[in-house]
Amino acid sequence: MSNGSIVQRIEQSLSQMRRREISLSTAAAAILLHGLALEALSDVDLQELHAMTADLEIATWSGDDEGFATPVIEQVVTQMDGWLIRLPR
């Protein structure tokens, strides 16, 4: 599978999360799984992937609205959008 296809799957998971069609935990797992499948991912991008998906998992612990009400979610989504732009395709 090409990096372009993998990036599309990551974007799809992020979009589904934004629409609350999938939970933060499910989105984090899918994004991490697909992100690890990317070829030529730099160590910095890999570390950022792990940090962002961990932040999503941690947000689920807030107990309110399955974590979606946590202010950090918008920050993580913005960070992911920037990360996706930098990825090799």
Q: What sequence of helices (H) and strands (E) makes up the elements?
A: HHHH
What is the number of strand segments?
0
Question: What is Rg?
Answer: 12 Å
Backbone shape: globular
General description of the model:
The chain has 89 residues and is an all-alpha fold. It has one domain. The chain is 69% helix and 0% strand. The radius of gyration is 12 Å and the shape is globular. The N and C termini lie close together (11 Å). The model has no long low-confidence stretch (mean pLDDT 89).
Task: For the structure shown, list the relevant keywords.
single chain, 89 residues, mainly alpha, 0% strand, globular
Quickly describe the structure.
By secondary structure, the chain is an all-alpha fold.
Please write out the topology.
Blueprint: H1 3-18, H2 24-36, H3 43-59, H4 72-86
Helix pairs in contact: 1-2, 2-3, 3-4
